[in-house]
Amino acid sequence: MKAFIKQYVGGASAGVVQVGLYVQGLRYHTSKLRAGREELPPVSDDAAIREIAHQARLQLYADEKAAAQHALARLGKEAQRLARAAALAGEKTHFMKTHSGAPRVFSHAEVAELNAKRPADDQLELIGFAGLLEHHCCFPNCPLFLKDLRPPDTLAKSRRHLYHHLKYFFTPHYDYLRALHARAATVLRGSAITRQSEQAFLSKMEEAFSCDSSPDYDAKYWRELLKEVRLSILRVL
Q1: For a Cys staple, 110 with which of 106, 150, 170, 224, CB 3.0–4.6 Å?
Q2: Do 44 and 50 form a contact (C-beta atoms < 8 A)?
Q3: How does DSSP assign 179-223, residue by residue?
Q4: φ, ψ (nearest 5 deg) of residue 148
Q5: What would the pLDDT profile of 158-209 be if each residue is shown by its tens digit?
Q6: Residue 118 contacts by C-beta under 8 Å, 6 or more apart in sequence?
Q7: What does the alpha-carbon distance between residue 201 and residue 221 come to, in Å, rounded to a whole number?
Q8: What digits encode the pLDDT tens for the residues 98-118?
Q9: Cis omega before residue 103 (within 30°)?
Q10: Sign of the CA dihedral 204, 209, 210, 214?
């Protein structure tokens, strides 16, 4: 150490040099901090050492402040996420009050009878043979029951406005299964046993959808819903 001090620092005190090197290391502890500097502050001058220590304290404060701000931002994002989740849960609860159970399904004769009393630009259309309607909500308790959900100036074939209306069935967790009615109608049309036996129908449907693989699966809820769907479709087949 003495030889090093004598060669590179001159007659400075060994203790001062050690302190200076230590403080300099605190302040310029990465290559990024050292980059672009032709030379570092001297390590054998009391004033320089004090300045380095001061700068090190400022940097430590800045790092702690940045870490605290980052933590607050993270907490803020988590609070926002929880607030959004709570709001979504509230919206879903309100929605399910008027959309619980199975929707109403219609036969061709019923659609024709209803259309005879409806405007020409607001006719009901069946989706396939399951009894559900294009563009119209089929839940009797819904305030928009049998209302065309497309904007007046966008009477397109897309069902996206209907799916948007029914989005709470699929978020934040599933209370319905896509193509449930179409699959149920296919099962009932293809097998006399499923038309006669409720248990046979339930077994076929549970096998087809593998409901129990979902983390939101509630056996009692799905079985009751499937029973309602079966009865409603049998009425219009």
Answers
A1: 106
A2: no
A3: THHHHHHHHHHH-HHHHH-HHHHHHHHHHHHTGGGSTT--HHHHH
A4: -70, 120
A5: 788 898 999 988 887 777 777 888 889 988 888 888 788 989 998 888 887 7
A6: 124
A7: 16
A8: 998 889 999 999 999 999 999
A9: no
A10: negative
